[in-house]
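Entry 12.
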Amino acid sequence: AGYKRLNRTIKMASSSELACTYAALILHDDEVDVTEENINNILKKAKVEVEAYWPGLFASALKGADIGKLLSNVGTPGSGGGAPAAGGAGGDAGGAAAAEAAPEPEEEEESEEDMGFGLFD
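Predicted 3D structure (tokens):
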């Protein structure tokens, strides 16, 4: 599932990714460690089934990460774009942790002429 925007297909997050993202946010909000076991506990109590690898993947990606800092930087320049939390949220949970470790260099904005189209073309 995705949609087209300026000739680019953007993949939407799966329900499993979203469930793990919300579980990680709940754990962070309650000041509980974001571990595979805790994510699985929340998902089980919510009666949400996900593929077995997702909770461990999210726990590994967020291990040692300052989730509060990640959340406060969502959408700011150089943050790697908007993410679910985990990473990102936007699709790759590992990307959120990597963005914190090595911030991406800011790119220059392209003019309409550089992109080959104008706003009202």
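Annotation: Confidence is low (pLDDT under 50) at residues 81-100. The two ends are 28 Å apart (CA to CA).
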